[in-house]
Amino acid sequence: LNTNVELYQSLQKLLADKNLVDSLDPETRRVAELFMFDFEISGIHLDKEKRKRAVDLNVKILDLSNTFLMGTNFPNKIEKHLLPEHIHRNFAVTGNHVIIDGLHAEAPDDLVREAAYKIFLYPNAGQLKCLEELLSNRDLLAKLVGYSTYSHRALQGTIAKNPETVMEFLEKLSDKLSERTVKDFEMIRGMKMKLNPQNSELMPWDPPYYSGVIRAERYNIEPSLYCPFFSLGACMEGLNILFTKLLGITLYAEQPAKGEVWCEDVRKLAVVHESEGLLGYIYCDFFQRADKPHQDCHFTIRGGRLKEDGNYQLPVVVLMLNLPHSSRNSPTLLTPGMMENLFHEMGHAMHSMLGRTRYQHVTGTRCPTDFAEVPSILMEYFANDYRVVTQFARHYQTGQSLPKNMVSRLCESKKVCAAADMQLQVFYATLDQIYHGKHPLRTSTTDILRETQEKFYGLPYVPNTAWQLRFSHLVGYGAKYYSYLMSRAVASMVWKECFQQDPFNRAAGERYRREMLAHGGGKEPMLMVQGMLQKCPSIDDFVSALVSDLDLDFETFLMDS
């Protein structure tokens, strides 16, 4: 449709008529402008020859994206005799080769992690060429349709609006994090020295493992201690209690019709408001299956929209998780991470359920990338608040409530080395911006990786590695990898301003629905944020919100001391 010239000309004629545009309601005007934007980033406004060039470039970019994506997971292999024999058992071995299919970041043996890092990230010439072509063709397309860089094209309509704002956000965040990151690295280095005194230099393959060791040693958050309190039934009841108190909404299990669901253990939930009635349906595909993708996600089956007869087409979505099945002796038990993921994905589902847009084009989660994660990340704050958790976390055998100090320990454990983790995300997001910035790139993608890593992360680049060739998000989030950090900043501000004092505040819940969830992508994202916070946040506000989340809770600190 984005290459249909008649449709484009009809829309162009409408938008050129000032009186007609002024008579449209704000959402209709925004949808018309979004359609126009979609047309023009596909090059429809160009002459015939350039238009064909834009279509060809789009096809080529799609092809390169798929090839690159497949290459990000492709294993590397090395001859057996080149690796110490005692670490072979950590990897798959076929014939004379050891197969390395990932970073093995949690392996306790330093040598296993080092070998995995150096071999898995060893550059593949074909993948390198594919990435260079992908970036170069994206740049050609952006220039062809009137943008100075691909990043400028990708960021139109987002909270950030342009790459200059994104870089300001990332640079300020990096500055504010730097001291904390140095302290985190010192702490990790100390733990490495304690466990491996012969080789205590901190390397990029160390932080995930050693920060986990520090977390376990300091807070004793063994998942098996928590699982009995987080049965799936209890967690669903917790969501029900939260939504009832905040939004007047209840989740009811419904019996699906014969043939309605794709697997017998998929559950159907009706989302019902206390006065408005049925709002939509959520299909919960929660359990592990052999042929199922290993990814927790939310997706739309049918978007909400106002129908011609004046009735509202109700949204229908799927929540997909990979939870273990119940056993003969116990119900399905969730780890704290699984429980948080359930709340996160349910945040997306509620965005879909409560969107009341006139058009499907902007329904629910169909909004700019740096706003789309706000409702889901906000739900993580509820999942980590003792006042919420105590409503539902009960031991499945004894009925005992999860003790407050266990919730506090869990929350504080997430702050261990969190500055270094966030600094890593800043590095990835900056790399993404540079790759999609001014072209031709001034040097190779690997040289850019090395420079950016040294400036924005702090741990040394390892020669003959090319992490960017495993960076799969360059495909789906090209120029938008920063979005998760910005969404977290907005969610943090909404939590602190509106819900921290009382996570069950009905007035705040109704405002959240009215100002943020109801509009989907039908309103400019910054206007929704302003409406919720009752002020226009600055880049400094976003940075401060993220950094203040890293502060330890004083009460827990005293309790642990």
UniProtKB/TrEMBL annotation:
Record-level GO cellular component terms: mitochondrial matrix
Keyword terms, alphabetized: Acetylation, Calcium, Cobalt, Hydrolase, Iron, Magnesium, Manganese, Metal-binding, Metalloprotease, Mitochondrion, Protease, Transit peptide, Zinc
Domain Peptidase M3A/M3B catalytic: residue ranges: 104-546
Keyword Transit peptide: yes
Main location: mitochondrion
InterPro entries, alphabetized: M3A_MIP (IPR033851), MetalloPept_cat_dom_sf (IPR024079), Neurolysin/TOP_dom2 (IPR024077), Pept_M3A_M3B (IPR045090), Pept_M3A_M3B_dom (IPR001567)
Subunit structure: Monomer.
The name this protein goes by in its record: Mitochondrial intermediate peptidase
